[in-house]
Amino acid sequence: MAENNWQNFLKNIGEWRGSFTKISPQGEILDSTLSIINLEGLEDNKLVKFRLRRFGGNSYDETPTQDYGQEYRSLGRQIIFFETGTFSKGSFQLAPFADFGSEFGFIEGDRRLRCVLLYDRQNELSSITLIREFRSGSNAQERPPLTLEQLLGTWQGKAYTAYRDLRPTDKFETSLEVKKIDNNKIQQQLTFSGTTLTSSASIEGNKLVFNSGDNPRQILLLPDGSSTNAPLKLELRKPFFLEVGWLVNEKERQRLIRNYDATGAWIGSTLVIEKKID
Predict the structure, then answer these.
(1) Phi-psi region for residue 72, left (φ > 0), alpha (ψ -120 to 50) or beta?
(2) Where does the record place the Biogenesis factor required for ATP synthase 1-like C-terminal domain (predicted)?
């Protein structure tokens, strides 16, 4: 697993131009900063040099306001790269009075999309950062903002779960049906590994709010075909998951899920690649 993790990491090699966009927990776009990330493989790809430059203005030709570099010869256990190069990394453990966060990264052709979810020391969702990146020199385009209409229908897919303890990856089939009940509510039914989960959400602008149960969560429909699915507040001693999705085209959506158990410990990450069948 560790060796494959490095090889999958190498699928992100290149120069990526894009932006970091701050988004409020309510889905409001706050501000954006231009960025260039370089991932360069050296020594027969046994060493990867990472460089991040961020710019204060509207041009990549300006002097960067931040220029940060790091070298990697191995990867920490908190990060998992899947075969596509898509990855998930973040906190090992939810704890009282401690910051908590996770990053989700997708790669598809000459595009990357990353998203960082941060929780404050009261375990409340405090900020979302959406990072839209394009391989330098390519003609890659940004996707339109995600809409509810694009999600409606039936999606069938395959899921791959990689575990913190490096046991073999699990693979299983998934089915997700999303339908409108009325103008103000949707219902979704998720089936996997013989389990079916049904839930409903109210439609509030670019938010789908799930209030059933004792831990409300919301899906935010965001720029570039992306979405977040996260609790507004993390509860101690209860299992939870964080999810980011990306509609890579009208018929394919990918979702990354980071799973935590009732002790607040990270147990694994799941990549779902699903196709719309109707």
Answers:
(1) beta
(2) 142-277
Helix, strand, coil distribution of the chain in percent, nearest 5: 5, 60, 35
- As a whole number of angstroms, the distance between CA 142 and CA 134 comes to 8
- CA 221, CA 246: separation in Å to the nearest integer? 10
Tokens of 101: 């966060």
Structure tokens, 136: 């330098």
Please state the domain extents for the chain. Answer: 2-276
Residue 268 to residues 143, 194, 248, Cα–Cα distance (Å): 29, 20, 24
- pTM equals 0.95
Residue showing tokens 């790091």: 70
Q: What is the largest CA-CA distance in the chain?
A: 58
State how far the Cα of 216 lies from the Cα of 207, in Å rounded to an integer.
13
At residue 278 the predicted structure's pLDDT band, cuts being 50, 70 and 90, is: confident
Q: Tell how far CA 227 is from the center of its chain.
A: 8
Query: In CATH, what number does 2-276 get?
Result: 2.40.128.20
Calpha distance 246→100 (Å, rounded): 23
Read off the pLDDT of residues 158-179 as tens digits, 9 standing for 90 and up: 999 999 887 888 999 999 999 9
> Is residue 86 within 8 Å of 256, Cβ to Cβ?
yes
Cα angle 93, 6, 17; round to 5: 90
Q: Where are the alpha helices (DSSP H) in 41-180?
A: 148-151
pLDDT, tens digit (0-9, with 9 covering 90-100), for 218-251:
999 999 999 999 999 999 999 999 999 999 999 9
Residue carrying structure tokens 């009732």: 262
Dump pLDDT digits (tens) for 246-275: 999 999 999 999 999 999 999 999 999 999
Token reading at 57? 């203005």
